[in-house]
Design a protein that fits this description.
The chain is an alpha+beta fold. It is built from 16 helices and 19 strands.
Length: 514
């Protein structure tokens, strides 16, 4: 009797567990060397020859062509970490991989997968308690936020800028969108532009997008602008049905031309008389309409994408209008200044101040595409973690100190757990040690020696991390050196890594259809 297709492949028992665990470990290992301030970069080349150079864990895993379903679960861990808190993606993936490695050792010792899962979940609860104990008691002020941003960006590609100088810009951006209702993270955007040193990176109080005026004669700058956002085509209307018109005389031709001219003039007059200084439309604008509006001193941008139009409307307070006859002054948005700038072959529009200032843009500059791409990723992560730290008000020591504390507390609690589950709880602590071990290896230090020294310092001082300052590597209190992370980043890494590892460890049957 054939229950499944003859082409189906089935792997069961230890073979299935081993295959899945091996795949998960391999993915985690691929990003492990990128961890920490001395982490290395990866060069990723796709089938089309496009190159990405980065040490961002989420980017690396998403750019890799991963097919194994268990390995994809590790990628999902990284994606979840990125989506929830914006950073710690490499930590989460590496921790998940090492939890799988420890689970494999336990399975070989005939510890049942269910026991491992129960032990891991109990250990994760202890880990969360340890994180709570490490939260800094001081209020999260701008100085701590700068430390959070700098810690996030240290070791990432920031061009000619230091992480410290970029941290100032990041904190200023997040503070700008901090409201009574919380941090409006979506109101901070990052726009990249090639063609200058990264030192030219700046914060724009408004929005920036790739657009040029619809006519060369239009003003390049408008102050105290009244802004209309349209979903209207300012061109001769055409029917949806193909049709032909027979013209038998010059009079008929002139009448047709006059009708078109009248229609276009009507568009220009309606817009000009509305009082709008600047018009953004998602549709096309006829040259004659653009020329007429240019003569009236109206600045027009045509063919905007829906997302850009939505962003302009949201930032300026404008209401999108789908029929020109409905355009009223109450639909207008406002901005202190709208201007266009040319950078090489690219034209950019800047909408600044006024209602638009509720949205801010980090305008990133860099000499090459690779530099601005990596800067964009680094700043994006920093914005996320600063927003997370500001909203939660909780930060913990970085540099491996929190992981040392987690492992120490888990081992201490494991002594009171009976049965084989104790083995799983202890294995979880061993897996957490991978973070300080990897930080040590990436600085050129011996992981075993550093781990022993960190444990001893933690035992005597209560807090100890691996501090990297220039070429010097020391063991000290990370808070004293401004190396801090949002507590939620650590919590999310523990929870997502545990969830993925336990899910994979429980799989003992893989059925694949050809």
């Amino acid at each position: 009797m054939f229950i499944m297709s003859e082409d189906s492949q089935r792997t069961q028992g230890r073979d299935a567990q081993s295959s899945n665990i091996m795949a998960g470990k391999a993915v985690a290992e691929s990003v492990r060397t990128t961890l920490g301030p001395r982490g290395m970069d990866k060069m990723l080349v796709d089938s089309g020859g496009d190159v990405v150079i980065t040490n961002d864990g989420a980017t690396i895993l998403n750019e890799m062509d991963i097919e194994h379903p268990a390995a994809q679960m590790i990628v999902e861990v990284s994606d979840s970490q990125e989506e929830e808190v914006g950073d710690g993606t490499t930590t989460a993936a590496v921790l998940a991989g090492n939890l799988l490695g420890e689970a494999e050792d336990l399975i070989e010792q005939d510890v049942h997968a269910t026991t491992i899962v129960e032990g891991y979940h109990e250990a994760a609860e202890i880990a969360l308690e340890a994180i709570d104990e490490q939260v800094n008691e001081a209020a999260v002020d701008d100085e701590i936020l700068r430390q959070v941003a700098e810690s996030s960006m240290t070791g990432k590609g920031t061009g000619g800028l230091t992480a410290a100088s970029l941290a100032e810009t990041v904190v200023e951006a997040i503070r700008h969108v901090d409201t009574d209702a919380g941090v409006e993270r979506d109101n901070v955007t990052v726009h990249t532009q090639i063609g200058a040193s990264s030192n030219a990176t700046e914060l724009v109080p408004g929005i920036v997008f790739d657009e040029e005026p619809a006519h060369d004669g239009m003003p390049s700058e408008v102050e105290d602008a009244s802004i209309a956002v349209l979903d209207v085509e300012l061109d001769v209307r055409t029917g949806d049905v193909d049709a032909e018109y027979a013209i038998d005389s010059i009079d008929q031709l002139n009448a047709a031309i006059d009708a078109e001219e009248g229609e276009l003039e009507g568009y220009a007059e309606t817009v000009a008389e509305s009082g709008a200084d600047v018009v953004f439309t998602t549709e096309d604008v006829a040259d004659r309409v653009a020329n007429a509006l240019a003569n009236e001193g109206v600045l027009v941008f045509e063919g905007l994408g829906d997302s850009d139009a939505r962003q302009v409307a949201s930032a300026t307070g404008a209401r999108r209008v789908g029929d020109l006859d409905d355009l009223e002054e109450s639909d207008f948005g406002s901005a202190d200044r709208i201007h266009t700038e040319t950078y090489g072959d690219d034209d950019l529009a800047f909408v600044e101040g006024g209602a638009a200032a509720e949205t801010v843009t980090v305008f990133v500059r860099g000499g090459t595409e690779h530099i601005v791409d990596e800067l964009e990723r680094a700043i994006g992560d920093a914005l996320d973690v600063v927003a997370t730290a500001l909203e939660s008000g909780e930060v913990v020591p970085g540099a491996g100190a929190t992981e040392i504390s987690i492992a120490d507390k888990i081992r201490e609690e494991a002594a009171g757990i009976e049965g084989r589950k104790q083995l799983a709880v202890t294995a979880f602590a061993d897996a957490v040690d991978i973070v300080p071990r990897t930080l040590a290896a990436n600085t050129g230090r011996d992981p075993i020696d550093v781990l022993v020294d960190l444990r001893a310092a933690h035992e005597s001082e209560g807090r100890a991390g691996l501090i990297t300052t220039g070429d010097e590597v020391t063991i000290d209190d990370p808070f004293e050196h401004g190396v801090v992370d949002p507590a939620d980043v650590k919590r999310e890494a523990v929870e997502s890594a545990t969830e993925a590892a336990t899910m994979i460890a429980r799989i003992d049957d893989v059925i694949a259809a050809e």
